[in-house]
Amino acid sequence: SQKIEQNSEALNIQEGKTATLTCNYTNYSPAYLQWYRQDPGRGPVFLLLIRENEKEKRKERLKVTFDTTLKQSLFHITASQPADSATYLCALREATGANNLFFGTGTRLTVIP
Amino acid sequence: GAGVSQSPSNKVTEKGKDVELRCDPISGHTALYWYRQSLGQGLEFLIYFQGNSAPDKSGLPSDRFSAERTGGSVSTLTIQRTQQEDSAVYLCASSLGKNNEQFFGPGTRLTVL
Prior knowledge:
The complex is a heterodimer.
Chain A: E1 3-6, E2 10-14, E3 19-26, E4 30-38, E5 45-51, E6 56-59, E7 62-67, E8 72-77, E9 86-94, E10 102-103, E11 107-112
Parallel strand pairs in A: 2-11
Antiparallel strand pairs in A: 1-3, 3-8, 4-5, 4-9, 6-7, 7-8, 9-10, 9-11
Chain B: E1 5-7, E2 10-13, E3 19-24, E4 31-37, E5 43-50, E6 65-69, E7 75-79, E8 88-95, E9 103-104, E10 108-112
């Protein structure tokens, strides 16, 4: 069956450290993968997109990697801040051209001051 | 500019009643999605509208669910004869196209008693 798993439901990290979140997928052939941030009571907000032929993407303190052999994406936040505390969702679009994104269940990140 | 708006923000209804949820997408966005987010679950795709094309209804969980998009803008998701398992946050998103960044609304929290 198809699955998108984000390795931990919750992750606590000390301010200033690098947070690393994992997204693993099974039985999908992604065209690209996206990462979203979701705050309580709000809709998800798009952060980054990485295509299947890209290894790494960066945006300010954010870095995403994509390994199609391992079927895994890693999402890094460097120099983490308490304001980075939120739930982070990965989502993928299949290369088959399906209209929807398939979402993981998310990892709730807490950055401790 | 204005983002995606949804109404109502909260809806409490009794089992068996019909409910209508509204989404106002960003002006000019031709693609519109409805998702459902249940506690501890990832976002579940429900339906996709693209311009004047026939909608992709492949994610609707039962024939009690329907949606329409009038004039290529506002969309309404209707749930008939609501059941307790319909309780969730219903999220709407719009984008310039299928492969563009999705902008989400704040969601409607539906509680079926």
